[in-house]
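Issue 218. Parser rejects a valid record. Input:
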Amino acid sequence: MRLRTLTALAGALTLSLVTGCAKGDSTGSSANTVTYWLWDANQLPAYQACARGFEKENPGLKVKITQLGWSDYWTKLTAGFIAGTQPDVFTDHIQKFGQFADLQVLEPLDDLGIKDSDYQPGLAANWIGQDGHRYGAPKDWDTVALFYNEKMANDAGLTAEQLGGLSWNPKDGGTFEKAIAHLTVDRNGKRGDEPGFDKNNVKVYGLATQGAGYGDGQTQWSPFTGSAGWSYTEKARWGTKYQYDSKTFKSVIEWYFGLAEKGYMAPFSDYNVQSNQGNTQIAAGKAAAVFDGAWMISTYNGFKGRDIRTALTPVGPTGKRATMMNGLADSISKASKNKAGARKWVAYLASDKCQKVVGDYGVVFPATPAGTEAAIAAYKKKGIEVSAFTEPVDDKKDFRTFSYPITNYAADVTALMQPEMEAIYGNGKSVSSLDQTTDQINLTLDQ
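Output the parser choked on:
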């Protein structure tokens, strides 16, 4: 099992050398320096501020921060684990956690005193490995909501109250599908729910596409599968059986991608992971609404000439709304050249001292309650309403929040689900094919 994964990482190393991604010297570890990597440029100023505070408390100890784009970040990090050029501390994603833990490239953090009760519910527990050790200190969290163009909604006669009170089901789509259909306008000015609507010549789609969603569907179909009561695996963490073959999952996927067939959601061909994501479609006025994560709040708020609002995810067949609640963490490389300094830095990053500073920048929701409150206040000062993201965390009665799937072989699951979901969405492949794909995934996990 380990050999196969190491081979994949070796492939990533070869790719980074060929493409020249491993540019510059960003290691720089020494007894008085801690190297730290992150990928989000929007968060860089906040963590630079944290570094200044940390250095004041720890005279003689410096933090060297390197920011890389998403793709380069993971290519260079995986290459670094092999070449010995990895940072002391890095921003970790739950999607990568299983693979990194299995490879034993992460340093246990049990001695940092991380307590579940110090953070938003569930965040700390997600970073416990199958061996019972902690490998990540909670950093931030995000949920998913519906971003929509207020002018387009007003033109369609849809109020904020209506958009915030939608419900759905896989049989007829409920009031959610009715709203998305009414927001859709063809080249002749006909709405999606009007006689004569031309689904093959749409000017404005009611719902932008975020792609096929692969195996997690975070900003695509997960609010629907979640509110239908479906779960990725048989248990919350470190499951051994994926459930993509369930009747519930297949019925949701068939309905969701069917919105594109009806002309209400942009077709798969309109999506490009680099240049034409859902937010790009909204900015261009080609779509009226899209599901997206809290990390995108500032992006949508910055669209010139677009008054973008947010609404809660719709109520599903279970009677609850649902959203994935994802959270990043800070991890220490097992091969860190300055583990003592790295531990001090990670402890500081996970503390209210840093998390309140990050919250004050209003670009993300920090993991501690105090950090979250600081972020809410910062967004409010900017005139940004964020309750659609915070309510799911505060109201457990009416909302179901769930984690990104945490299992071994996450990369293998994605490799199998990506072409499968793209074929269902883009080529109209039957959802019954998910039965065979699920068998393949579960055989992989059983190794």
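Fixed in the parser; the record now loads. Residues 2-19 form the longest helix (18 residues).
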